[in-house]
Design a protein that fits this description.
By secondary structure, the protein is of the alpha+beta class. It contains six helices and seven strands. The termini are far apart.
Length: about 190
């Protein structure tokens, strides 16, 4: 019996194997979800409906960085600065490189594209400085999104992507989802009425 051979209903054994595996995975996720739901009670019900939150950051890390010079050159107040060997906390321990981060946060409903544009507009005049710095350091932008929903989506504009490409900076997206589902506001009709 070979995996390419057709079964009686016209499905190949490979297709059949994929369908079975997909069904098993789907069932496992459903069971895991129900277990979490049972353990957390109405936790998700209280959290769902809260707005998404987040921020975007320019992050620079490397060896022997002059963190004050970087902040002064970019004319942005650093959100966090650490020198190599500095103890972060008892769990993480000491940092392995020099590190500086500049956060951009927007008030109101979180929109990564608008937040990114606000940060990028502050950086565009320093394109040459950032490109020169990226030769000896790791320079990138990180967007962090926290959501109550299991599935979210955002669109980045062509202008945002163009500015990121012009600066030659990598983009990292980090999403924390609580996995909630928005409840429908419509009540189900009872049968027979």
């Amino acid at each position: 019996m070979t995996l390419g051979k057709n079964l009686e209903n016209g499905t190949t054994q490979t297709e059949y194997a994929y369908n079975v595996a997909g069904g098993l995975a789907s069932t496992a996720f459903y069971v895991a979800g129900k277990a979490v739901e049972a353990l957390t009670g109405n936790f998700f019900e209280r959290r769902v409906g809260m707005p998404n939150s987040g921020y975007c950051s320019l992050i620079i890390k490397g060896d022997d960085l002059d963190l004050d010079l970087i902040a002064d050159t970019l004319k942005i107040t650093a959100s966090e600065k650490r020198k190599k060997g500095e103890i972060i906390n008892s769990v993480i321990g000491e940092i392995q490189y020099d590190f500086i981060r500049f956060d951009e946060k927007m008030s109101g409903k979180y929109n990564p594209d608008k937040t990114l544009i606000a940060l990028l507009n502050k950086l565009m005049d320093y394109e040459v400085f950032l490109k020169n710095l990226s030769v000896s350091a790791c320079v990138y932008i990180k967007c962090y999104v926290q959501s109550d929903y299991a599935q979210i989506g955002y669109m980045l504009s062509a202008m945002t992507l163009s500015k990121i490409a012009q600066l030659g900076i990598d983009l990292e997206l980090s999403i924390l989802s609580w996995g909630g589902v928005k409840k429908s506001k419509t009540k189900k009709k009872k049968k027979g009425k």
